[in-house]
Amino acid sequence: MPRAIFENIVIQKFEEITALAFCQYTPIRFFEILFIEKGSGTLMINNHRLTYNDNQIFIFIPSDQYNFEIETPTTVAAVKFLDSFFGDMLSGENKAQRQQWLKKIETVLHGANRTTHLNFQSKTDESSILSLFSVLCNEYNDENLKSETILKSTLHSILHIIARNVSFVSAAITDSKIQGIINHIHYYVHDAEQLSKKELANQFHISENYISQYFKNKMGIGLKKYILNYKLKLAETRLKYTNSTVSEIAHELGFTDSSHLDKTFMVHKGMTAKNYQASLKEA
Q1: What stretch of H or E contains 229?
Q2: Cα diameter, the chain
Q3: Cα–Cα–Cα angle for 26, 30, 32, nearest 5°?
Q4: For the domain 222-283, what is the CATH superfamily, name and number?
């Protein structure tokens, strides 16, 4: 039986299998990284059929269901972040470490296209993922190893590589510059300086006076509003899945204070952040 690191993460690896059904953790899974090292066949994701091959990564959230139809023997590894991950595992981290975990997980969670596999931007990243998953699975399953430091650092590296390969823009949008801007916003959402019009203009070679209009023309929403909407999405995720206070969330996402977040949340969600958090605890 697979064991759980800190009772919050489960890692499984299956070698050269011809049949597989291992979704028993779905009811308590927050999200999952599935890495197909080699093999071929069809992956059924929420009743959609996708062909899979070597070195492909898929991302799933709690409501996602998947099953394999294997054609050639398949080696696959899965990292399942259970719904206790945000609350329990992160509570012992210092704030800097905690912020790094949240940043990477949120980037993957809110950016990954769950209807297809992750497209690596370089062969180097693809090769690194293969090596890192080997280290992760070996460390996790070897009874003589089990180093918490190695497991955490390897997993963090995997999340980092996935995060920088995630694209936040629909495939229907072919403008690479707007894709780059969106990716930049999501990656640096915690850094106000990186999200300034001046910095974005410098990064993407657009006039500072024009960048807001350019963004709205391409995305159908203003730059400032898009950033705010994304921050609110992150705030909602943290309120739902972490034990962070409203004040902590407000500070980490660049709101003036908890009152500012409450008022903004009220305008967009119809209730304050505090009330939303309380309603989740009562449910």
Answers
A1: helix 223-241
A2: 60
A3: 75
A4: Homeodomain-like (1.10.10.60)
